[in-house]
Specification:
The chain is of the alpha/beta class. 43% of the residues lie in helices and 13% in strands. The chain is built from 8 helices and 6 strands. It has helices spanning 5-15, 22-34, 37-53, 70-73, 88-97, 125-132, 147-160, 185-193; strands at 55-56, 63-64, 78-85, 102-106, 138-141, 166-169. It has a 4-stranded parallel sheet with strand order 4-3-5-6. It has a two-stranded antiparallel ribbon with strand order 1-2. Helix 7 links the parallel strand 5 (138-141) and strand 6. Helix 1 crosses helix 2. Belongs to the RecR family. GO terms for molecular function: DNA binding; zinc ion binding.
Length: 198
């Protein structure tokens, strides 16, 4: 279908976002066209502000306006524990549960031999540097349960354990509210492996 060039370019821009297919991109483009000028200006301003005003924390690698970030400078955080995640959005997910009070380290990806991503291409070196200059006694690896996430976790464990620092991994298994009959084999295997006494 032919669209005027401005809307075709807008659809193309929306379709470059992850998880946005052609139909959703078209719907978003037409919705944007129908917005008031003030709303569109505010939307554009927010996009530019997020891109321009955010940076990565020089300590943990999390997105922040101020460097170092609020978590790294919070005196109430437990400085003996660092939770290692793949992306900044994972920090937000952990902070929502309000259970973890330690520090974070954001890798900005995972080691992926299939995609040619080596440890040098993610934020590993600064993690090792942090461990040399701090009182950290435990690293909690919270990479995703994918082959790349597992490979990254194993690599980090091999790098960190010789320093005498405890390395743990988030438990894997059945989600709360799920049925055993619908779980895949890997999930069930991890659930058995990570079982706990009650």
């Amino acid at each position: 279908m032919y669209y005027p060039e401005p809307i075709a370019k807008l659809i193309e821009s929306f379709s470059k976002l992850p998880g946005i297919g052609q139909k959703t991109a078209t719907r978003l483009a037409f919705y944007t066209i129908g917005m008031e000028d003030q709303e569109v200006n505010e939307f554009a301003k927010n996009l530019l502000s997020a891109k321009r005003d955010l940076r990565f924390c020089s300590i943990c690698g999390n997105l922040t306006e101020k460097d170092p970030c609020a978590i790294c400078t919070d005196p109430m955080r437990d400085k003996t524990t660092i939770l290692v995640v793949e992306e900044s959005k994972d920090v937000l997910a952990m902070e929502k549960i309000r259970e973890y009070r330690g520090l974070y380290h954001v890798l900005h990806g995972t080691i992926s031999p299939m995609n040619g991503i080596s440890p040098d291409e993610i934020n590993v070196k600064s993690l090792i540097t942090r461990l040399m200059d701090s009182e950290v006694s435990e690293i909690i690896i919270a990479t995703n349960a994918t082959s790349d996430g597992e490979a990254t976790a194993m690599y980090l464990a091999r790098m960190i354990k010789p320093a005498g620092i405890k390395v743990t991994r988030l438990a894997r298994g059945l989600a709360v509210g799920s049925d055993i009959e619908y779980a895949d084999e890997i999930t069930l295997s991890k659930a058995v492996e990570n079982r706990m006494e009650i």
